[in-house]
Amino acid sequence: MTTTLYGRTPDGTDVHRITLGNPTLRLAVLTFGGVIERLEAPDHAGQMANVVLGLGSLDDYQTDSPFFGALPGRFANRIAGGRFVLDGVEYHLACNDGPNSLHGGPDGFGTRIWRIEDSGEHHVTLGLTSADGDEGYPGTLEVRVTYTVDGADLRIDYRAWTDRPTVLNLTNHSYFNLAGEGSGSVLDHLLQVEADAFLPVTASSIPTGEIRPVAGTPFDFRAPTPIGRRIREADQQLLYGLGYDHNWVLRPGAGLRLAARLQDPVGGRTLDVLTTQPGVQVYTANKLTGALTGPGGRAYRQGDAVCLETQHFPDSPNQPAFPSTVLRPGTEFTSTTVFRFSALPAC
What per-residue confidence (pLDDT) applies to 327? Predict the structure, then answer.
């Protein structure tokens, strides 16, 4: 493990870059936003490539990033109207997605400087304290996120504690392109999602409350399917999201289990996503317009990556039928996600 100075914020705070790795997987994480800045894995020929989108400087991450590689929070994904009621008290949040709060608000966890709490040859733990009232959320929250590189696995362990009842939803927002950062569209990537249902949304991307079977819809990825095969169908849900930007309801099960598999059919890089969480948000980078340029000097456009955000369901604080995201004093939030890489023969 090595730690280097990546840059300084306008107020003079140092931002560090931590690198971990081995011959089969190399990771770089920033203390700014907990960002996965670089993740290198081999293809079937053993050629290493960075498989996550990113930006070229700290200034870019602070001003232009659409959550590239970040740790959103306090509540990942959307909360309708920037409000929720907990124990009879209504809380109002900072909104940054039209009328809704997205990924914790405009000053969410993905924009903060995280502390290095612990580190070793193969892991680093980042810590953050979120004060009572932060972006409108109740309770002082302590968060710890540990990145561990173990062989071809990147394991992310999340822990959190609060001194007042609050709501919490944590994830990692990496944008994956298994052909390599800046290589173009991922619509030919094969995607499989271990889910029989998904959450339809309104025009403002808030779940309607319905849990809809994927059978007979463009959201059926129960078998490996090219991401782009049905993405341009005149389905109202695809029109609302400008593509896929929906939560899949994972099949229930205890402990760490497979959520999704992604494969580049040319280079053979394969990513298995395992998680303890109940859902995964699949987002096909629909709002990339070509205005952002990655570290490889290539412009990013719609469909140039896919996010596989393991999490609780969007807007859960306002949807009593969804799994609860309430965290209370005296209890500990824990979750784990593993990104497991392999290289299969090209399709």
Answer: 98
Q: Specify the DSSP class assigned to residue 127.
A: E
Q: Cα separations (Å) of 45 from 77, 340, 341, 342, 345? A: 37, 18, 14, 12, 9
8 A C-beta contact, residue 267 and residue 179: yes
Buried b (16+ CB within 10 A) or exposed e, 179-189: bbbbbebbbeb
| Whether residue 309 lies in the annotated active site | yes
Q: Map residue 63 onto helix, strand or coil.
A: helix
Q: Yes or no: say if 319 and 178 are a contact pair by the CB < 8 Å rule.
A: no
What residues make up the domain containing 197? 2-343
What rounded mean pLDDT belongs to the chain?
Answer: 97
Among candidate residues 37, 135, 181, 309, the one labeled active-site is 309
Are 78 and 206 spatial neighbours (Cβ–Cβ below 8 Å)? yes
Per-residue pLDDT reduced to its tens digit, 143-188: 999 999 999 999 999 999 999 999 999 999 999 999 999 999 999 9
User: Residues 103, 173, 189, 312: which is the catalytic one?
Assistant: 173
90 is catalytic: no
Q: For the chain, how many structural domains are there in total?
A: 1
What CATH number did the domain enclosing 30 receive?
2.70.98.10
